[in-house]
């Protein structure tokens, strides 16, 4: 599978526009594969290509790069630059020739002179690849060409790594496994493939119930070759420096410089092997990709390793264990952009390491002094991630509850009840625990509040709960915040976002755990009342704060909110990246199972929308496997992927039946916001469900302007009112809900055309074209993909196009379908003409089911 389709499309746009291009990416990033794909696509479009490969050991041999490429005249000895220039210029003259120079820094000087002369004589486009701009390839290209574009190969996104892993394994893959490959490889394709190949070969992953899952650690010595390739160009000093930093872990810059020296740090950073981050404004460094650190940490004992460890120990002094040292090194304020980079992977690693360190430290504190205070701290951290149930039971059994601070005793009982209700599924036992703890009158109200919360999560939200919570007041700030938190939750789930927002207008204090909960609820209240863009910005702001503070639970909550609001805004690319980040954080903690199911379901929906069907199917299966069918918050519907598949396949009636069934199930639980949002999330997927028979066809209308406008669109379609659809489209556009705006314009245009109103149809077409022109193309489904254009393809043309869209080469397609490569090429050319596209890179814009 070719996973750099976006880079391929960018490169082709630049080249066909006449620009020379410098492709820069670290070793293992797929530079050479990208260049081969570029060559294939250019040749399909009629561009002659001349391919030249640089080899380090031959860099000093004149014209060897051209000779090895077969570009030297036969019988010419010794080779003369004039002859070579004349021969290549003749090939390039009068054509749109492209010179593709792979590993450009290793091309000999004489060959570069010929390339420069051919470009000057014919204007041939030059495309180079290199590991880094500093190696001189980019400078050399700029010396030849006054204007050359640079295309940097960033790490693969979580979705791309997921696609790659699915392609390698051929079955459903647990997202935890994908997350580990993503973070340890830092999104470098060669490392991701090496990890999967070795893990499969040596039994570190296994196929269980049709899904690949991890068994222990993924590292195996057979991965060493892929890592050593990244280290091959380091000298002895830099190699010792990176080993030192890998064994030491994340270090502040002063300590790192003391250990290895400033020169080594700058050298490793320029080689893309060291990452600079700034936790709490303090510059620190970490080895990247993390697999490099694994490589050094798993090497056998040696004299050098012993010497390095002794030096590290002397610098740090005695430490109880590595986790204690990690806890002293706070997290990363990594790059806030949505494009993935090495900082993203380092951040995930730091979050996991810090969580492990806190868990270890709090476990030790509880073991030394098993009081309700230490137990509460331990349980909070334990419940933030996946844990062994026997550990929690041990804490409950060994902690004396008759002594200690009253507030800590009450919180211990709340956590114990929470575990019984959510982990053991024993809601009745949980409520008994809270009732038995009511002998503390000071905390009676707080116990009642959290008992209500368990009922809301387990049984659903009711009006009676809201009425009762509204009458309560607390004796202290903690109880007051608890009431506000649970009351706001109930109001939001019941679709009363305006009322909840009034309670949460000042909720932006993240200094306490309850404060962080209220901050997240504030974001949901913005979304629920229809301020979607504001909700998205709120979530992104608090994602960055959570990343800096390495707050795992808060990071999960705001990332999920950002994804849901991103989908509502039609920012599908952003939403997909947020969901990838959420899933990369690992398996959920106690009470977060619904969020995990929702993230999987939404990720499956977006994968299906972009035509990545195997990945979508795997994610959908995992959403179902969580055991949660519906959850309280928007998007938490395990059936959402199936609804998406039905919509994209054109089965609008089947999708409508499933949507109504899920809305009814959510309504019965009192999760009205989630029920209404199901319409919002599934609208605009390319094929619309049947319109509403009347404005009241959907009974679920919630406070605010989130859901109601979607229902108004359905009613307008039923009335065939294109004027109202034009108005709604303009309103959606003003609110930045761009996919909903596009859908409204498109439906209005079609109605106007049916009614013969050419003026209105033209106006709506112009509005639609203007909107599409301003959108990120990665967020838009191809117009052809929404129409009947694909129906023009024959069955064989469609099958060939589908396989090509999923990254298979012409040769692979021929073998798969048992036809000749020439026949594959013929079918593809016919498909390109019918789809009105110019090459394989544009096939990914269609949904291939």
Query: What is the oligomer described by this structure?
Result: single chain
Tell me the β content: 5-15%
Strand line-up of the largest beta sheet: 2-3-4-1-5
Distance between the termini: 17 Å
Classification by helices and strands: mainly alpha
Mean pLDDT equals: 82
Number of strands: 11
The number of helical runs is 42
Low-confidence stretches: 318-341, 782-788
Indicate the overall shape. globular
Radius of gyration: 30 Å
Please estimate the helix content.
55-70%
Q: Sheet with the most strands?
A: 5 strands, parallel
Describe this protein's structure.
This protein has 849 residues and is mainly α. The protein has 42 helices and eleven strands. It has a five-stranded parallel beta sheet with strand order 2-3-4-1-5, with helices on both faces. Strand 7 (205-208) and strand 8 (211-214) form a beta hairpin. Helix 8 packs across helix 17 (342-368). It is globular and about 100 Å long. The two termini are 17 Å apart.
Entry keywords:
single chain, 849 residues, mainly alpha, five-stranded parallel β-sheet, three-stranded mixed β-sheet, 42 helices, 11 strands, globular
């Amino acid at each position: 599978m070719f996973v750099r389709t976006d880079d391929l499309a960018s490169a082709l746009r630049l080249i066909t526009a006449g620009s020379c291009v410098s492709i820069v990416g670290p070793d293992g990033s797929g530079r050479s594969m990208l260049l081969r794909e570029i060559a294939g696509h250019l040749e399909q479009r009629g561009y002659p290509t001349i391919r030249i490969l640089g080899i380090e050991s031959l860099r000093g041999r004149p014209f060897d790069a051209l000779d090895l490429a077969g570009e030297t005249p036969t019988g010419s000895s010794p080779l003369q630059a004039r002859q070579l220039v004349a021969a290549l210029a003749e090939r390039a003259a009068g054509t749109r020739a492209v010179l593709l120079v792979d590993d450009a820094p290793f091309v000999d000087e004489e060959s570069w002179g010929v390339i420069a002369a051919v470009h000057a004589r014919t204007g041939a486009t030059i495309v180079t690849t290199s590991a880094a701009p500093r190696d001189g390839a980019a400078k050399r290209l700029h010396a030849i060409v006054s204007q050359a574009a640079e295309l940097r190969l960033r790490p693969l996104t979580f979705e791309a790594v997921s696609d790659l892993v699915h392609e390698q394994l051929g079955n459903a893959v647990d997202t935890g496994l994908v997350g580990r490959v993503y973070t340890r490889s830092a999104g470098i394709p060669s490392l991701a493939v090496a990890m999967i190949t070795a893990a499969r070969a040596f039994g570190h992953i296994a196929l269980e119930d049709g899904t690949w899952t991890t068994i222990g650690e993924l590292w195996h010595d057979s991965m060493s070759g892929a890592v050593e390739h990244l280290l091959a160009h380091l000298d002895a000093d830099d190699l010792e420096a990176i080993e030192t930093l890998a064994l030491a872990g994340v270090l502040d810059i002063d300590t790192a410089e003391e250990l290895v020296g400033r020169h080594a740090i700058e050298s490793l950073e320029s080689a893309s092997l060291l990452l600079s981050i700034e936790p709490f404004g303090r510059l620190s460094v970490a080895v990247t990709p993390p697999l490099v650190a694994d490589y050094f940490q798993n090497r056998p004992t040696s004299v050098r390793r012993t010497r390095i460890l002794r030096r590290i120990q002397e610098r740090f002094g005695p430490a109880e264990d590595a986790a204690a040292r990690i806890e002293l090194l706070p997290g990363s304020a990594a790059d806030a952009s949505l494009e993935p980079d090495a900082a993203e992977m380092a951040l995930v690693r730091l979050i996991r390491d810090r969580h492990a360190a806190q868990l270890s430290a709090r476990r030790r504190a509880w073991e030394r002094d098993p009081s309700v205070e230490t137990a509460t701290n331990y349980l909070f951290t334990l419940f933030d991630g996946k844990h062994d149930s026997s550990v929690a039971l041990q804490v409950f059994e060994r902690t004396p509850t008759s002594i200690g601070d009253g507030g800590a005793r009450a919180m211990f009982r709340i956590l114990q009840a929470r575990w019984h209700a959510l982990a053991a599924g024993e809601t009745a036992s949980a409520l008994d625990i809270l009732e038995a703890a009511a002998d503390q009158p000071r905390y009676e109200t707080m116990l009642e509040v959290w008992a209500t919360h368990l009922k809301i999560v387990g049984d659903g939200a009711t009006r009676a709960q809201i009425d009762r919570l509204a009458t309560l007041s607390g004796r202290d700030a903690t109880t007051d915040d608890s009431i506000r938190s649970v009351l706001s939750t109930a109001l939001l789930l019941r679709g009363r976002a305006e009322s909840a927002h009034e309670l949460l207008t000042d909720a932006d204090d993240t200094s306490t755990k309850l404060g962080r909960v209220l901050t997240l609820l504030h974001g949901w209240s913005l979304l629920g009342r229809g301020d979607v863009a504001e909700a998205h910005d709120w979530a992104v702001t608090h994602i960055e704060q959570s990343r800096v503070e390495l707050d795992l639970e808060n990071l999960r909550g705001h990332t999920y909110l950002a994804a849901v609001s991103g989908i509502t805004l039609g920012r599908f690319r952003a939403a997909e990246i947020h969901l990838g980040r959420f899933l990369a954080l690992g398996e959920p903690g106690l009470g977060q199972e619904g969020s995990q199911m929702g993230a999987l379901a939404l990720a499956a929906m977006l994968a299906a929308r972009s035509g990545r069907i195997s990945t979508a199917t795997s994610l959908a299966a995992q959403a179902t496997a969580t055991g949660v069918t519906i959850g309280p918050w928007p998007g938490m519907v395990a059936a959402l992927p199936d609804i998406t598949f039905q919509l994209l396949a054109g089965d609008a009636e089947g999708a409508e039946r499933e949507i109504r069934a899920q809305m009814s199930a959510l309504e019965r639980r009192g999760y009205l916001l989630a029920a209404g949002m199901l319409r919002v999330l599934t609208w605009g997927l390319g094929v619309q469900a049947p319109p509403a028979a009347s404005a009241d066809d959907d009974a679920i209308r919630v406070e605010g302007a989130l859901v109601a406008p979607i229902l108004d669109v359905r009613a307008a379609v039923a009335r065939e009112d294109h004027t109202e659809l034009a108005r709604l489209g303009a309103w959606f556009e003003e609110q930045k809900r761009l996919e909903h705006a596009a859908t409204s314009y498109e439906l209005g245009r079609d109605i106007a055309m049916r009614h013969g109103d050419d003026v209105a149809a033209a106006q709506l077409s112009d509005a639609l074209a203007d909107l599409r022109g301003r959108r990120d193309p990665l967020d838009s489904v191809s117009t052809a993909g929404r129409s009947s254009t694909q129906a023009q393809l024959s069955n064989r043309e469609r099958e060939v196009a589908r396989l090509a869209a999923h990254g298979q080469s012409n040769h692979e397609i021929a073998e798969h379908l048992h036809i000749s490569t020439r026949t594959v090429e013929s079918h593809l050319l016919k498909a390109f003409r019918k789809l009105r596209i110019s090459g394989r890179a544009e096939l990914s814009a269609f949904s291939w089911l």
